[in-house]
Fold:
Amino acid sequence: MLKMRKTTIKGVAAAAGVSVTTVSDALSGKGRLPDATREKVQAIANQLGYRPSAIARGLRGSGIGLVGICIAPAGGGGALTDVSYWAAIVTHASQAFLSDGHAAVLLPHDVGLLETLHIPLDGVIVVDPLERDPVLTFFEDRNIRCLTIGRDVSKTESIWVDDDTATGVRRLIEATISPGTKLAFLRVGPIKSYVTDAISGARSWAADGGGTLSIHQCAGLESEHVAHTVREAVHEGATAILTQNDRLALRVRDVLQAMGRDVPGDVRLLSAADAMELGQGPVGISAARPHPARLAEMAAAKLLDMIRGQPDVASTMSPMEVSIRESAPLL
Amino acid sequence: MLKMRKTTIKGVAAAAGVSVTTVSDALSGKGRLPDATREKVQAIANQLGYRPSAIARGLRGSGIGLVGICIAPAGGGGALTDVSYWAAIVTHASQAFLSDGHAAVLLPHDVGLLETLHIPLDGVIVVDPLERDPVLTFFEDRNIRCLTIGRDVSKTESIWVDDDTATGVRRLIEATISPGTKLAFLRVGPIKSYVTDAISGARSWAADGGGTLSIHQCAGLESEHVAHTVREAVHEGATAILTQNDRLALRVRDVLQAMGRDVPGDVRLLSAADAMELGQGPVGISAARPHPARLAEMAAAKLLDMIRGQPDVASTMSPMEVSIRESAPLL
DNA sequence: TTGAAAGCGCTAACAG
DNA sequence: CTGTTAGCGCTTTCAA
Structure:
């Protein structure tokens, strides 16, 4: 099979015996040509298998219809539930972009790699940015419109979409933890906005006389680290544990069981981020419910607005519901 | 803040008092300019925040470094396990592309949408193509290099990477189902190559005197449909059921339990596609193990070879292991 | 060692 | 109604 040069607009023009303008107009529906000409040109273009070059078209100005999705790595070697969160965001955002004629490019959360990429992006969504995230600076530097799901707490000027984790967590605690309780918050991995928010939710509960709060950092998601931290918390008298996320909650549940502590009898267990898995197993775990799909759709819509040059795009907090389960039933 | 026009190579040239050629050479390392000139130009470019336009660069020929990933929709409103399969493929393929300077674009499995997209693709991976998949024709028509994970069984000329489901399933059956057994295969959803393969694996087992095989089509994944089909199979005397995939297997397990049939006592249960979830729950389900991550890496590597113009890219079958669990223990 | 100029494929002014 | 022409930003001969 011969590798012939792709047919260009010039080829079509020649074959049809018209000018390139006529071809361009005929195919794009601009300029009112007589239907006869238009159809003739279309027929010939079709027959020649002509496909306008997206690159050449993009060169004239407006970009090429590409939007990036850049996902920060999860806390502890993401598997399980990060995947479904992540997948929900990617599919929903991507779908929203598609229905606007844009396509989503998967971007690495790594400036080194990003620098090698040279892709003409109309905008980017960064998911769960870290504190002072260099990736955000990267996009800022090249004037690429950027919107985050979750926030870089160090940036004030940025536009974002986020779950209202502070309020969600506070409500979750109020509904399930009796006043005066010693509550331990368990963190793990890099600082993301939802963690900060969860902590401030818990803090506000404590500050308003709900109880006392202590914060514990887990070295990792491995059982031994989790066990160590849980022991520490329990030893200090905590009778309720709030974990940063679902995976940590599952580990804590296992650890408590192994320690012979009853959930919720001896210790109540909560998670700041829900996931299907929390509903399964011996003792379902109460949690605040993030809405990745909704966030993704909002983020995509807003980013598209920004791309269209809309001036008044604002950040949005999305309210959370809570899932009450056996690990911390209603008071 | 002023919205100034982006600095182009011309701007840099003017600012540096040299020609555009010099700028181009200085930045791309071509043509042996004196280091003095080069550094000076680079400094100025840097200071002006100059970023060469990927589009303009691509216009000269070679494309822009984009590769598509196009995933066919799963059987019954994909959730659960499709997600992890899908995610493994997307992340691993995308990573492989990145390390070669390419970026992955998420493409819809829908020619209508694809037509609106106009993205300059160097190649595409289509995941789990359907029979006579129009999407494949679409890419073929525009001379876009295409490679599939799973195969379109109707296409002979195409290049693919696939699990060797036929052999895997046959081994799974041989290891767990005693000769002479009536085995029922349960299908659901669109025809994909792994289904065809699973069936031919089972057929070859039956043909070689292993037992008898009947094939049943489920109308959907809803409990009532599954229950209906299972009842049908059991009524015909089947004492072993092999399902097309994990989700169907989970449903069948529930249905059998609801019918008061013991697994594996009354009926042995197998799945042609493994997933983490099959290892959980009251009775773990034996299954053949697909390797999405490995397939994705192989697919990406091969596609990149094709893009580089390598002539001898061939299809590959990847061997499967099996997971033996309680639903069908070793004979 | 450097610069001028010719495109790459397409669209949008501007003439005819 | 249709054709000519001038770019879009860059790379790449080919001269100077």
Notes: The mean pLDDT of chain A is 91. Residues 93 and 296 of chain A are 5 Å apart (CA to CA). Residues 80-98 of chain A form the longest helix (19 residues).
